[in-house]
UniProtKB/TrEMBL annotation:
InterPro entries: CheY-like_superfamily (IPR011006), Sig_transdc_resp-reg_receiver (IPR001789), WalR-like (IPR039420). The modification 4-aspartylphosphate is found at residue 54. This is Sigma-54 dependent transcriptional regulator. SMART domains: REC. One of its GO terms (biological process) is regulation of DNA-templated transcription. One of its GO terms (cellular component) is cytosol. Residues 4-119 form the Response regulatory domain. Keywords: DNA-binding, Phosphoprotein, Transcription, Transcription regulation, Two-component regulatory system.
């Protein structure tokens, strides 16, 4: 039996593209143009296997729609669609129950793979991620159809670099092992940027930074890094935002 999917998005062209792409893949698809219409169609969630929800909509923002969906059905599957992804948004969305994210603009193939991955996930009642957590659990999310988990981490005795190996999964594709390299000089840049000789969480902080960098790459590019290697060369704007967020949380605890 084909999965039933509800698409809630205020942009007509996006709704149409999603409906056609997923209908072509064999899914049963209905659409709604805003949050109230989407919630009216969703009811108690019994007839829906998945919701695709736009984050930015007039009137009733996606995050409010999301909270109401999980209030009605704590075991709901939901993909949050947004072009405005930030650390704070991701944390807020995870706290509200989301575990799958799709970044605009996206191709029909990325859409289908994201849907396939979301439908394959085991559902569980949503739970709150403590705001005081220094290390965000990106590894439990699905980003553009990708999910990943840490396989191992080592420190190069000669260079001082940290090397993290991640197993990256995507529905319908072979598993990839991606190496993320965090050079020692970037760690020193972090200490200078945060004006702290010791980072909160010790080694787990640096692992989380590697997780964030891989998550951001998958978010921005919807593909694994070239040659399955991602080297963190400097403090990008996104990493600076992540550091600001982490250090603020640490200072408040």
């Amino acid at each position: 039996m084909s999965a039933s999917i509800l698409v809630i998005d205020d942009e007509t062209n996006i709704r149409t593209m999603i409906r056609l792409a997923l209908a072509h893949a064999g899914y049963n698809v209905e659409t709604a143009s805003d949050g109230p219409e989407g919630l009216a169609k969703y009811e108690n969630g019994a007839k829906w296997d998945l919701v695709l929800l736009d984050q930015r909509m007039p009137g009733m923002p996606g995050i409010e729609v999301q909270r109401e969906i999980f209030r009605r059905n704590p075991h709901a599957r939901l993909i949050l669609i947004t072009a405005f992804g930030t650390i704070d948004l991701a944390l807020e969305a995870i706290q509200a129950g989301a575990s799958d994210f799709l970044r605009k603009p996206f191709t029909a193939e990325t859409l289908r793979l994201a849907v396939q991955s979301a439908l394959a996930r085991q559902t569980e009642a949503s739970h709150t991620v403590p705001v005081g957590m220094v290390c965000r659990e990106f590894t439990r999310t699905t980003i553009n159809g990708f999910s990943f988990e840490l396989e191992s981490q080592t420190a190069d005795d000669h260079s001082g670099d940290m090397i993290c190996l991640f197993d990256v999964h995507r529905a319908g594709a072979p598993q990839k092992r991606v190496k993320v390299v965090l050079p020692a000089y970037v760690m020193e840049l972090v200490k200078a940027y945060t004006d702290a000789e010791e980072v909160p969480g010790g080694e787990r902080f640096w692992i989380a930074m590697c997780e964030e960098s891989l998550a951001n790459h998958l978010w921005q590019n919807a593909e694994v890094p070239a040659d399955d290697v991602l080297r963190i060369e400097d403090l990008s704007t996104s990493l600076q935002r992540w550091l600001d967020s982490v250090m603020t949380v640490s200072d408040n605890n």
